[in-house]
Automatic annotation (TrEMBL), chain B:
Keywords: Cytoplasm, Initiation factor, Protein biosynthesis, Repeat, WD repeat. Component of the eukaryotic translation initiation factor 3 (eIF-3) complex, which is involved in protein synthesis of a specialized repertoire of mRNAs and, together with other initiation factors, stimulates binding of mRNA and methionyl-tRNAi to the 40S ribosome. The eIF-3 complex specifically targets and initiates translation of a subset of mRNAs involved in cell proliferation. Component of the eukaryotic translation initiation factor 3 (eIF-3) complex, which is required for several steps in the initiation of protein synthesis. The eIF-3 complex associates with the 40S ribosome and facilitates the recruitment of eIF-1, eIF-1A, eIF-2:GTP:methionyl-tRNAi and eIF-5 to form the 43S pre-initiation complex (43S PIC). The eIF-3 complex stimulates mRNA recruitment to the 43S PIC and scanning of the mRNA for AUG recognition. GO terms for molecular function: RNA binding; translation initiation factor activity. InterPro entries: eIF3i (IPR027525), WD40/YVTN_repeat-like_dom_sf (IPR015943), WD40_repeat_dom_sf (IPR036322), WD40_rpt (IPR001680). One of its GO terms (biological process) is formation of cytoplasmic translation initiation complex. It comes from Esox lucius (Northern pike). HAMAP family: eIF3i (MF_03008). It is found in: Cytoplasm. It holds the Pfam family EIF3I. One of its GO terms (cellular component) is eukaryotic translation initiation factor 3 complex, eIF3m. This is Eukaryotic translation initiation factor 3 subunit I. Belongs to the WD repeat STRAP family. Gene3D superfamilies: YVTN repeat-like/Quinoprotein amine dehydrogenase. The keyword Methyltransferase does not apply.
Length: 690, 319
């Protein structure tokens, strides 16, 4: 109940003194709330600060004389009316009559002003003039900055020690994380071919699962309140990111940023579903909305971490780091875009759009940040496409499912883009199916060889699944090297160094494993890990782990260690084993020629290693033998004592059995009865003569 | 070694026992029938009928003749000697060293508690009145398996919660108790000289104890629940049989005969051999008293008698 507001209103000048006064007496105070009377109007009540909030200042405006002022105003109007109705403008003039070079514009609402700032700031009018746009109130803010400079408090340097400590293991053992006891315990092991060596083991380290960062520096654990990063020799906590209900994370390849997703926190004003964090400072860099996490990661990073992009309806938004702003301040409108992915070797994005009326479907390769389309490939009668990059970005394979005109079935082609050759030539590999059936081969899996130019395809229908190996040659041909038929496989796992691979039939195929050397396409070994659910290569390509996770199968949870040739080294049973992840290695620091030199001198180095191995083997067997010897001695001692006691009780035993000695089976030969029993053993029919 | 296959039961075998000399093998199963076989060739000697429910356990006393066998509440003397009715199922039974005292334990079922009962066979009055001379209640955890101690002074019982207790046969009080297992004890068997007992537990391990002191001597670990274990009379070996719960059987490899009996070295606690052949989890294993053969009874209803090859006796782990 307040009438204060009306006090300041100017008196009504049009008021006619002759008419009777209808106004309330001087001291009348009514009892109706303003809010009740004019609530809706009040909401639109002009605020004191309103006027200023809608004003923007534009700098670097050309300084013109009065004769060209009109033209300038028209140009400004054209540019800035886009953001809203300009209600007021002011072009300050200097002493010589020409504009000073900065202008003030007022909009109808503060949102329009903000819009103008966002979009017009940085607008290039011409070569010499790039607009700088700011909200007027910002000037106020900057003017009012405290004159006294307070040095920000220096945060003590947290020394986490050598973050690459695990790489310095003298025996070059790689590490891997193991989650077991259905998530209660997480352990880090050093991989030794004899037996895994525990590096660290903690209870309830994570609430769901763990992830390593791409270069292996950090271990991320999940908690209700957010993510924690651990590292260094003792796995101390390096950083913590608070994101309530986080369920998914992704690292940038350079390990500078981590992206977290939580389905819980998201409001219209403050997008919190996806947050990008700076790992070293722990700061929240930017938040984004996210409707669904169906295809995680939503944001895909370029290989050097300079850009990240996401696809929404008809739009591809590319952001740059470290500003976290849109590249060129706007998203790309690509109508119908279905999928995109970054080259793992260069800042190139490949994306595809389906057919649109009479425009055929096409795959486009776009260079960033220039946005130049370096290659476009038209495809006809496309049903679906899948993009597969080779690990170094040397090749792109687009798996195209098409329905050729006049047929009902679906045919699959592989379009191979040779990225390293001029103008990116494309070769096509057709997957011809069974000539009997109308349908073409269904493709079960596809994988490029890392570090190489081969790829493997699993195709066919169970039980006639075939594994085909192709080589992309330099002369423009793609050759089918070998096809293995009737394989029990549904997944392909290449060694990270290339050449070797495992064909696995996981889950429903009961864990069939085939170890293949693709240099001559021979099967090195065929084995089985019953009900295996996962296959993981170590980062060096020396070892393979197959595991049965408790998350997919409730019994026999274990992980087995094999050599790359398929020789089984260890079987490690772990109560309710869930997940094993190898710790990635950072890229090698050696230059290519140093690596070549080492490969040349390999014989020299291998001699030293073999000697070391032999020593440790004999040490191991010696240890084992010693252990067994001491165990046997203990056991013998115990047995002797027990037997002694047994002897002492003999009298008691004789009594219990009425004087009959039953200690040995032959203690009572006299009492034995001899019985002859005939057994039927064999029947033989012998024909007699003639 | 080629095993002898005994087919005489229609349902899963619950226990098998050799007599003292080893020439007879008794097998009992859930099909209410108890069979006795010649262990030398697998020929069936006879069948004991008369039980109305699953037969859980059997024991045979050691007096050379006449032979008595004991199954849940029916001590037979080649023909039935006596029948003792109980209010709930009898889970385990046994003759003491002298063959005069019987003990058996009843299940915790249908409102009835678990009891350990002692009957003296020399007192016909006890049998007639169905009155044991001593009854010990087990309130906390029911007894799942039990054997007599060396001189008939106490009974060593394994419980559902993994505990092992020594119950005096005279007073019924608990003389010693240990808890080394984390889950139910499925079977306890003694060594032939009764100085040691071996326990088989659902916690996937088997342990060797001294019978008198209940000191834990050795542990044998596997990845599957162990249903039964036995100690070799002549070698430093133990054999274990197991598998999963009957319910989960279909989730293991369906390859024929994957359920194995596993042999461990008693001193080194290391597995050195496996014998395949059963189509279902193995429920009971037993060594022949002369140690030259062993038998196993499985969920599949078959009992297999295995005679060891000569290599078995020569085998030695490097030490």
């Amino acid at each position: 109940m307040n009438m204060h507001d009306t006090e300041d209103m100017p008196p009504d000048v049009d008021y006619d003194e002759d008419e009777p006064s209808f106004s309330d007496p001087e001291d009348f105070v009514d009892d109706i709330d303003d809010e009740e009377l004019l609530g809706d109007l009040l909401r639109e009540k002009p605020q004191e600060a309103d006027g200023i909030d809608s004003v923007i200042v534009v700098d670097n405006v050309p300084q013109v004389g009065p004769e060209r002022l009109e033209k300038l105003k028209n140009v400004i109007h054209k540019i800035f009316s886009k953001f809203g109705k300009i209600t007021n403008e002011f072009y300050p003039e200097g002493p010589d009559g020409s504009t000073k070079g900065y202008i003030f514009l007022e909009y109808g609402a503060p949102t329009q002003a903000l819009d103008a700032v966002k979009n017009a700031d940085g607008y290039k009018l011409d070569k010499q003039h790039t607009f700088r746009v700011n909200v007027f109130t910002d000037f106020d803010k900057y003017m009012n900055i405290c004159d006294e400079w307070e040095t920000p408090e220096k945060q003590p340097f947290k020394d986490f020690g050598n973050m690459r400590h695990w790489m310095e293991d003298p025996d070059c053992r790689d590490q891997y994380s193991v989650i077991y006891e259905s998530g209660e315990r997480t352990a880090i092991f050093n991989n030794d071919p004899k037996d895994p060596i525990v590096a660290e083991e903690r209870a309830r380290w994570t609430e769901t699962y763990v992830r390593w960062s791409p270069k292996g520096t950090y271990l991320a654990t999940f908690h209700q309140r957010g993510i924690a990063l651990w590292g260094g020799e003792k796995f101390k906590q390096i950083q913590r990111f608070s994101h309530q209900g986080v369920s998914l994370i992704d690292f940038s390849p350079c390990e500078r940023y981590v992206v977290t997703f939580s389905p819980l926190m998201d409001t219209k004003e403050d997008p919190q579903a996806i947050i990008i964090w700076d790992i070293l400072t722990g700061q929240k860099k930017r938040g984004f909305h996210c409707e669904s996490s169906a295809h995680w990661p939503i944001f895909k990073w370029s290989h050097d971490g300079k850009f990240f992009a996401r696809m929404t309806q008809d739009t591809l938004s590319i952001y740059e780091t470290p500003s976290m702003g849109l590249l060129d301040k706007k998203s790309l409108k690509i109508s119908g875009i279905k999928d995109f992915s970054w080259s793992p070797g260069d800042n190139i994005i490949a994306f595809w759009v389906p057919e649109d009326k009479d425009i055929p479907a096409r795959v486009t390769l776009m260079q960033l940040p220039s946005r130049q389309e370096i290659r476009v490939r038209n495809l006809f009668n496309v049903v679906d496409c899948k993009l597969h990059w080779q690990r170094q970005g040397d090749y792109l394979c687009v798996k195209v499912d098409r329905t050729p005109k006049g047929t009902q079935g679906v045919v699959t082609n592989f379009e191979i883009f040779r990225m390293r050759e001029k103008q990116v030539p494309v070769d096509v590999v057709e997957m011809k199916g069974d000539p009997e059936s109308k349908n073409a081969e269904s493709i079960i899996a596809f994988a490029w060889e890392p570090n190489g130019s081969k790829f493997a395809v699993l195709h066919g229908e169970s039980p006639r699944i075939n594994a085909s190996f192709y080589h992309v040659k330099n002369n423009g041909k793609i050759e089918l090297i070998k096809m293995f038929d009737k394989q029990q496989a549904n997944s392909i796992f290449w060694s990270p160094q290339g050449q070797f691979m495992v064909l696995a039939g996981l889950r429903s195929m009961n864990g069939a494993l085939a170890f293949v050397d693709t240099s001559d396409c021979t099967m090195m070994n065929i084995a089985e890990h019953y009900m295996a659910s996962d296959v993981e290569w170590d980062p060096t390509g020396r070892y393979v782990v197959t595991s049965v996770s408790w998350w997919s199968h409730k019994v026999d949870n274990a992980y087995w260690l094999w050599t790359f040739q398929g020789r089984l080294l260890q079987k490690n049973n772990k109560d309710r084993f869930c997940q094993l992840l190898w710790r990635p290695r950072p890229p090698t620091l050696l230059p290519l020629d140093a690596i070549k030199a080492i490969k040349k001198d390999l014989k020299k180095y291998s001699k030293i290693f073999e000697q070391k191995d032999r020593l440790s083997q004999s040490k191991a067997s010696k240890e084992l033998v010693d252990k067994r010897r001491s165990m046997m001695e203990d056991y013998r001692r115990y047995r002797e004592a027990a037997l002694l006691q047994h002897q002492e009780q003999k009298a008691a035993r004789l009594e219990l059995r009425g004087g009959v000695d039953t200690d040995e089976l032959d203690s009572n030969i006299d009492d034995w009865e001899e019985e002859t029993i005939e057994f039927f053993i064999n029947e033989e029919i012998i024909p007699l003569g003639e | 070694m080629k095993p002898i296959l005994l087919q005489g039961h229609e349902r899963s075998i619950t226990q098998i026992k050799y007599n003292r000399e080893g020439d007879l093998l008794f097998t009992v199963a859930k099909d209410t029938v108890a069979n006795v076989w010649y262990s030398v060739n697998g020929e069936r000697l006879g069948t004991y009928n008369g039980h109305t429910g699953a037969v859980w356990c059997v024991d045979c006393d050691c007096i050379l003749n006449p032979r008595k066998t004991l199954e849940p509440c029916r001590p037979w003397l080649c023909k039935q000697l006596a029948m003792l009715n109980t209010s709930s199922a009898v889970r385990t039974c046994g003759f003491d060293f002298s063959g005069n005292i019987i003990m058996f334990s009843t299940d915790k079922q249908m409102g009835y508690q678990c009891y350990l009962n002692y009957f003296d066979l020399r007192d016909p009055q006890q049998i007639e009145d169905n009155q044991p001379y001593l009854t010990v209640p087990c309130a906390e955890s029911k007894i799942t398996s039990a054997v007599w101690g060396p001189l008939g002074e106490f009974v060593i019982a394994g419980h559902e919660n993994g505990e092992i207790n020594q119950f005096s046969a005279k007073s019924g009080e608990i003389l010693k108790k240990v808890k080394e297992h984390s889950k139910q004890i499925n079977d306890i068997q003694t060594s032939v000289d009764l100085t040691m007992v071996i326990t088989a537990s659902k916690d996937c391990s088997s342990k060797l104890f001294d019978s008198t002191t209940l000191d834990h001597i050795k542990t044998f670990k596997t990845e599957r629940p162990v249903n039964s274990a036995a100690i070799s009379p002549i070698m430093d070996h133990v054999v274990m049989g197991g598998g999963q719960e009957a319910m989960e059987v279909t989730t293991t490899s369906t390859r024929i005969g994957k359920f194995e009996a596993r042999f461990f070295h008693a001193a080194y606690e290391e597995e050195f051999g496996r014998v395949k052949g059963h189509f279902g989890p193995i429920n009971c294993v037993a060594f022949h008293p002369d140690g030259k053969s062993y038998s196993s009874g499985g969920e599949d209803g078959y009992t297999r008698i295995h005679y060891f090859d000569p290599q078995y006796f020569d085998f030695e782990l490097e030490a």
